[in-house]
Amino acid sequence: MAMLHIVNKSPFEKVTFDSCLGHASAGDSILMIEDAAVGAIDGTAFADKLKAAMADKSIYVLAGDLTARGLSEDRIIDGIKTVDYAGFVDLTADNETTQSWL
Amino acid sequence: MKYTVMINEGPYQHQSSDTALQFVRAALEKGHEIFRVFFYHDGVNNGTRLSVPPADDRLLQKEWSELGIKHGLDLVICIAAAQRRGLMDESEAKRQGLDADNIIEGFRISGLGQLIEGGIQSDRTIVFGD
Amino acid sequence: MSSKKFMFVNRKAPYGTVYALESLEVVLISAAFDQDVSLAFIDDGVYQITNGQDTTGIGQKNFSKAYKALGDYDISKLYVEKESLAERGLTQDDLMDLVWEDEDDDWAEKSSIILVSREEMAAVMAEQEVTLSF
């Protein structure tokens, strides 16, 4: 069963995102929303962890949360897909289950 | 697809209510069914009608209320969490001997069993919180 | 009503925020619905079930004893992550003795705490149908 993991914490402030990466299974998807969107940017202290996770997981970021924080989509790690709220809904429908990392 | 949505934070303090509102709107637009929206922890504060934000800010409680009425959503405030935080409907205020109620139209107060039932009845349960 | 696999994920310490207490309230209610309920204690969530909690110094009610009642409600799968304990300098000896009685085994008292590795926890999470996080 593929699971959508929804994470909403900046990886620079809390261990939540690390914990999510440590518990997501191969074939799962991870969606960054709210403060977690800052984790999508390339060249950060967190980027290598996310790139490693991309080997067997799909990574998404909610576009509105990225731009709200002054970050343009051209700065995100290659391979991370941006979604809008409709895309968010599709991800919850396409995966059998969801887990929010609060 | 049938959804239950859980909201665990109050409006303004945390983005979760904003995100959940956008999510629910998008889900409805796609033709999904929102079986229930369950407000827990400080999320019960999304159901007060006494909020008066600055004129240029959004009034989240009203947006939930209007969306709920328009689409016939079941917006449920947890009674145990509401009692702790001073959210009352008329009958609950009367039962507690209090002189006022503050719940906004379109919400109802009920028990935690409504959340579990939502999880059982829905295809997807999505949690928004901090 | 049909039975689903519910997991309640606890990642926060008690008392500093209300999440642990109100999570426990949801868990206790869930027992009335005859679902397949599991609890996960990871990260700071492991502090929710440490033994010897004493809240007299902070003016809050000590609700840790309520976890001991879970077994009476047929909630007997408390997955605790080894790595989360180790990272915090804790071992199972620091946790409450949480048990349930197995009616299929002459009401033998058995531990509700299932120590698992992070990898095993991930596998348990992957099996769930409804995951509520606190």
Structural key phrases:
heterotrimer; B: 130 residues; alpha/beta; Hypothetical Protein Ychn, Chain: A; 5 helices; 20% strand; C: 134 residues; 5-stranded parallel β-sheet; two-stranded antiparallel sheet; 3 helices; 7 strands; 20% helix; globular
Quickly count the domains of chain C.
1
CATH class of chain A: Alpha Beta
Secondary-structure-based class of chain C equals alpha/beta
What is the number of beta strands of chain A? 5
**Strand order across the biggest sheet of chain A?**
4-3-2-1-5
Give an account of the 3D structure:
The complex is a heterotrimer of chains A (about 100), B (about 130) and C (about 130). Chain A has one domain (about 5-100): DsrEFH-like (Hypothetical Protein Ychn, Chain: A, 3-Layer(aba) Sandwich). Chain A has four helices and five strands. With about 100 residues, chain A is α/β, with parallel strands linked by helices. Helices cover about 30% and strands about 20% of the residues of chain A. With about 130 residues, chain B is an alpha/beta fold. Chain B has five helices and five strands. Chain B has a five-stranded parallel beta sheet, sandwiched between helices. In chain B, helix 1 (about 15-30) runs parallel beside helix 2. Chain B is globular, with a radius of gyration of 14 Å. The two termini of chain B are about 25 Å apart. Chain C has one domain (about 5-134): Hypothetical Protein Ychn, Chain: A, CATH 3.40.1260.10. In chain C, about 20% of the residues lie in helices and about 25% in strands. Chain C has helices spanning about 20-30, 80-85, 120-125; strands spanning about 5-10, 35-40, 80, 100, 110, 115, 130-134. In chain C, the strands form two sheets. Chain C has a five-stranded parallel beta sheet. A two-stranded antiparallel ribbon of chain C has the order 4-5. The interface of A and C includes residues 98 and 101 of A.
